[in-house]
Specification:
133 residues, 6 helices, mainly alpha
Length: 133
């Protein structure tokens, strides 16, 4: 068994985490005060009304940095898990790293990216429950 399904699901999850959380990181770390006032403040106005512009931007940049760190950790975990599951060598070790990637996604995104974490949890189950033919 080549565990092709597990590799594909893991890579798809890593790509989605990179696109969504990494995209958030890039957008909010490149934002200036004018863009913040015109785009973000009207959307999140009720929640951010009490903050000054600089405090709101600092909050979003901190959140973006946190998401960026999450992306790096998830990519490392998925890469290690993919190496372990390659040629069906160590599927239980791969399951541990996929589970870790899911937990990091949940905690790192403050449960905003739970659908992305679910992908890694499903992959963990596949690594543990699928048997060789």
């Amino acid at each position: 068994m080549t565990r092709r399904l597990e590799k594909i699901i893991g890579i798809v999850g890593a790509v989605l985490v990179t696109l969504f959380l990494g995209g958030f990181t890039i957008v909010f770390n490149a934002m200036n005060e004018t863009e913040y006032k015109e785009t973000v403040l009207p959307i999140l106005g009720d929640n951010f009304e009490k903050l000054t512009t600089s405090e709101g931007m600092e909050f979003l940049k901190t959140l973006g940095a946190w998401f960026g760190f999450t992306v790096v950790l998830v990519l490392v975990c998925v890469a290690v898990a993919t190496l372990f599951v390659n040629n069906n060598r160590y599927p239980k070790r791969a399951a541990i790293f996929y589970l870790l990637a899911g937990l990091i996604t949940l905690i790192g995104s403050q449960t905003l990216a739970y659908p992305l974490a679910f992908i890694f949890f499903v992959n963990t189950a596949f690594c543990l429950l699928r048997k060789e033919k």
